[in-house]
Amino acid sequence: MINYNKIQFKKSSIIFIDGQEAKNYFYIITKGSIISYNYFTENYDIYHKNGDIIGLVNSAINAPYFATSKAEEDSEAIEINIAELDKIDNVNIIEKIYNHISTLMELWLNQYYFIFSKEKNINCKKENTILEMAEIYKNNGFDDAALKLYNKYIEQNGETEELKKIISKIKPSNTACLVIEGIYKLDKGTCIFTELETTEKLYMVMSGKIGVYSIFNSKQITRIICSDNEVFSGYASNKNNDLLLTTAIALEDTIIKILKREDMLELVKTDRALREYSIKFFSMRIYNIMRSINSFKIKNIIGKFMLVLESIVKKEILFKETNTLNLKYNVYDILSITGVQYNEYSSREIKKIKTIKIDSDGNIMIPDIKKFMKEYDRFQKINFSRTEDE
């Protein structure tokens, strides 16, 4: 049982400061209202009211605050120490934290695509046809995803001779093999779901590797690469907002566990270790998204690449101690996230990063993480001082 401190905030008092090191606690507002000014994304301000949470993500992963938070009126909040996540017995608070993380992730994913579209001067909608999406996945070597999309097109529009010819050349992957209830074995290349399917389930990778992608602006964008014990999610189809929909593909032979969202919630209520793990993991996912948004402010390719790479490295070492990494993400994944096309120029620029090694397939190795972080700090000072001057 935790005795929560109640904290009073006078009107206009500053609670968190953008860029300040995170404190080891977060707040749940019980009275009044608080506003967070997000300077890095076109002054995108968020208003918090009674029952809302502030400061959780930064506290969970010990990352500097993304925003400056100020009391709009005399306000009150309960203070929770991040080290006591596993001691929380109040079911309502656990549900509130779980829902807060989910909502925040969706909010920033939508903002990511909005900024992406503005930077590229394109419509913030998925305008690619099913056939275009299928062709992109096929050209990138994901035949099973392409086949699922072609079959969906045929289901809606009927088959043509040209389509029949294309499909005849695609070898379908084996279907997922049920191991025990809720656990499936997938062969490399198997598509779990596409952007045209509704799935609100959670998928936990027990072994292997999954790539989660979406087609935007006629290009394949990497949303996340997951391996052992990491979780990714599907989303319900929404005609008014299809930006969150993704395609998930096994990048190697993989075993996954499929959970309903409500089942996951019940687990984190009772499994204290899982609760702490999942809050930190999803908080780091939000940090990854925020860094991807930040990358659009940077003008040069190295700066963009380093910013996203740093966030990926932090995710990789969140639960393990190591000074060497073979990343799950390759060069093409990271460039797609930043909206940069892979070509001779971008390849040449990335090779200027001294603390990483890239093989002929674009895979990235970091021999010394400490040296990489020092190089990252130098790039950050250069690039963020420039963006602030501009």
TrEMBL record:
Residues 154-285 form the Cyclic nucleotide-binding domain. It holds the Pfam family cNMP_binding. This is Crp/Fnr family transcriptional regulator. It comes from Brachyspira hampsonii 30446.
